[in-house]
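Give me structure tokens for this 172-residue protein.
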Amino acid sequence: MPTYVALLRAVNVGGTGKLPMSELKAMCVAQGFEAVQTYIASGNVVFSSDLSEAQVKAALEKRLKAYAGKPVAVAVRTAKEIATVLSANPFAHHPSNRTIAIFLDKAPPADTISTAKGVKDEQICLGKREIYVAYGQDMGHSKLRITAAADGTARNMNTIAKLVGLAAGRDR
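Here you go.
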């Protein structure tokens, strides 16, 4: 049975999208997902399911919409894919708490980097279905805007590493 990592967009960030992780876990269990484990309050959940990635995404988004009364986007990756995101980090030399991957549903457009606005000391690199960003010294005041990232959800490398660890070796 495949192991998945689901990353919810705009949950428990900046006072929006309040969702206790106990509720998220209960939704996943009710959906029939197995070995469900959440990680921190920002909408990260690891579980096993015989459903396809697309079916997992659709099922979670449907349950979340019923709960929240509005759409909640979910990015889904297999255990292998999330491990690849971590190992493919082009900014491994950069502090992991200031380096993020923005998870998208499809490949970022080729012009993603050239159309980014407000670039100061940030570095940007494209992944398979991710956009990697290494922030400079003033991450908290960054004005970086990446149009292609508007529908994505970001996690720093510390969080991704923890999710990789939680998902490792669970496929049956």
